[in-house]
Amino acid sequence: MAAPKAFNATRGDKVFDVVNIVIMSLVLIVTLYPFLNVLAISLNESSDTVRGGITIIPRAFTFDNYQQIFQYDGLIRGLWNSIMRTVIGTVFGLVSASMLAYTLSRPDFQARKFTSTFLVVTMYVSGGMIPVYILFRDLGLLGSFWVYILPGIVSAFNVIVIRSFMDGLPYALQESAKLDGANDLTIFFRIILPLCKPVLATIALFLAVGQWNAWFDTYLYNGRHPELTTLQYELMKVLQSTQQGGSGQMVNANDMASKMTQISPESIKMAITIVVTVPILIVYPFLQRYFVSGMTLGAVKS
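Structure tokens predicted for Sugar ABC transporter permease (302 residues):
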């Protein structure tokens, strides 16, 4: 058997490779530079930051900006609450959305069309902030940790995305399982969910990012309950205090002045950005494989 001939790259192929490498390198630089610049400023001495001109390498390296942030006691409590609401909110939201999506994907569900239409309407029509606040008050959710979990436990968008994925699964799988004596719960947990890993990972990432970044609900419903504060809310107060304090001068906001020295608002903003971004960057690589598959669902029709 003759050995395959070696591929001889033509001049056009070499030019294409060079152009492709240059373009990809530019894309990489444009993508990484903002994050590296934020990291460099957060690790730069605050008094030196006001001079500007920092690129991707700190001019006066220091961890003082992060130390000043974490000296504030509310941050540790807020970090714990944010972790808890992210984990619990993601699990509850994923289970409820997938169960509802499974019900709507069943052809034998009589109210399928009405329920789907009702869900879509909720994406465009809202009661407004004041009625929602009154409703939460009457339900006893104000001053409660569950105000972070229960109101968003079912998302119409998440249900529609998961249902669209389930609609692409062969219904014969469910019929054959029923012939073997499996009930609906067995079919859902042992057949449907394992096949839905890509879309579930995608929705889980959406839910986790939404819960982790949320702070306005803390401001509205639990602003008077320090034990229920969240990391984003505390960092927002720290950032607000630096902006009110002018160029480098902190103001007394919730006893933060006694715990934090004079720092540059630019440095503290960048340090806060890194603090809230790193957890998501740590989680994303584990979900990337499923996330890419989930985002492309429905792109190809057989």
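Residues 105 and 167 are 6 Å apart (CA to CA).
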